[in-house]
Amino acid sequence: MEGKRGQLITLTKRQRYAQLISKAVASGAMQDMACEVIGLSARTLQRWRIDGAIDVDKRPASIRPEPQNKLSAKERQTVIDVCNSNEFASLPPSTDCAYSG
Questions:
Q1: Residue 51 placed within a domain
Q2: Least enclosed by CB within 10 Å: which of 29, 45, 50, 95?
Q3: Cα dihedral: 74, 86, 93, 71 (round 10)
Q4: What total number of domains does the chain contain?
């Protein structure tokens, strides 16, 4: 299995991996070992199966609240204006300088 931990896996690939694992188990393999060969944890396969069917990844559609410390539009524009001012425009972002605006 390509990818890394936490990467989104399409429904088609999820179904294919589950099918391959089921086929291996039906042939006598242990589910944990079949999952390991694919590069998938048995727990992940368990999470994918909702009422016996493989379900889509719901992370992209989840509702996430805005952070409480998010800058307001006015604050964001102030930061941009300061960064683009003549005093700081030619400096790289890594420059350590104090602003007392």
A1: yes
A2: 95
A3: 0
A4: 1
Angle at 47 between CA 46 and CA 50, to 5 degrees: 90
Q: Which two tokens stand for residue 80?
A: 């941009």
CA–CA separation, 37 vs 23, rounded Å? 13
Closest to 10 (Cα-Cα) out of 62, 56, 48:
56
Token pair, residue 89, equals 């425009």
Statement: the pTM of the whole predicted model exceeds 0.85? no
In a domain, residue 50? The reply is: yes
pLDDT tens, residue by residue, 41-83:
899 888 888 777 888 887 777 888 999 999 999 999 999 898 8
